[in-house]
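cache lookup: miss for this entity combination. No prior model stored, computing from scratch. Input as submitted by user K.M.:
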Amino acid sequence: MIIKKRSYPFKVYSQDVDFQGKSTLMALGNMLLSTAGYNADDNGFGMKKMHEMNSAWVLTKLALEVEQFPQEYEEVHVETWVEEVERITTTRNFTIKDVHGNIIGNAGSHWVMIDMQTRRIKDLETLEGLRNYADNVASLIESPIKLTPIQGELIDTFKVKYNDIDINGHANSVRYIEWVTNCFSIDFYREKELKRFEINYISEALFGESLEIFQEEIAADDFRFEIRKNGKIACRARMVMRSR
Amino acid sequence: MIIKKRSYPFKVYSQDVDFQGKSTLMALGNMLLSTAGYNADDNGFGMKKMHEMNSAWVLTKLALEVEQFPQEYEEVHVETWVEEVERITTTRNFTIKDVHGNIIGNAGSHWVMIDMQTRRIKDLETLEGLRNYADNVASLIESPIKLTPIQGELIDTFKVKYNDIDINGHANSVRYIEWVTNCFSIDFYREKELKRFEINYISEALFGESLEIFQEEIAADDFRFEIRKNGKIACRARMVMRSR
């Protein structure tokens, strides 16, 4: 039987909350990615299948809007479904709910499948039956957009380290969220709260590579970021803030 | 009724495993700290009580030995109990088990309570009833030791950032585990696996502070670390490795 929408529970642990006791964006990103992993497994297109095919799912775009950041010890439920399956990209959406069923956040994401040897994108037609899970239901927020280049100011330079590298041999998608959200001070977060986050993953960052992060406020409270490596773009991101 | 030993379940998510698909030390550290938090709450001396008293639990020493690092999607159970309650320090032990009940790791930890205003250590006598939870059962491994100063070589310099700071306003204990384990390359981890880790937390690291990390191999496979800030010691750590 095809179950198109499923929900997965998560707990907010001490290390998931920031100095104000609210979940970090990184922690929410972890929940979304874990949910995607679990659901892909439940649908038969998860880790196990990917290992068999010597392939991996790679996140290319993510957009997330947060109404309310969960607090330490809160339980949240992340609902997910596949919106569509195109030739090389599949869209997966999410709704984050509190324990009472109230929506506290929404997200949309685009994924491609890569070959682990060549690191090239593969045709999703090779995943027979995947299309049956597409239910054509849009996310409750605007889809992830293609972020444009920025000039920006250099905020930080750092190397990709052991703890950044995941089982796919590149920096984990959530680490980029950490790097971007680390561009602001705790004083900034005392005044401002995230409304919308989006990220475009462009080229993978590998162990030992030096990364530079640039930031530009292109309009009031609309911050853009670029992570560059050797002149190439690793990712672009956006944080739209609101006053608390 | 006083229940002296309890067990808490955790799942190993994608972001908890390293490039070899095994749980990172950081992820195990998160499980231990979450377990301590949950159990303190269950005993009535957790976050809620600490907030009321304008106090916080602070980890001062941790020793952890790992037999087998759990893999992605594995479920582990962390059993914990309070060994003893002294005047300023309490000892909490842990056993990490796989889903079949096999022991895959053991840990011991020392905690103090601080006043959130003065950041000074408080007498544990002020926590009436805490002593009733002490069951005098030692951990299955050698207790955390006091680590001695090292000379060492400067490995890295970095600043304490937004995502490092927890609800107590200082760098989260698990971040130090990240910093220490980041001193090695993925090639190193291909050959060596952690056998015993220990850490002494000496002075708290605050937002924006610059930290330096020093490393010295004092005997074969016995690595010592020191994280320093402005000439002060923030922590000392030790990683004893074994060949895979």
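stored under new cache key. Chain A has a mean pLDDT of 96.
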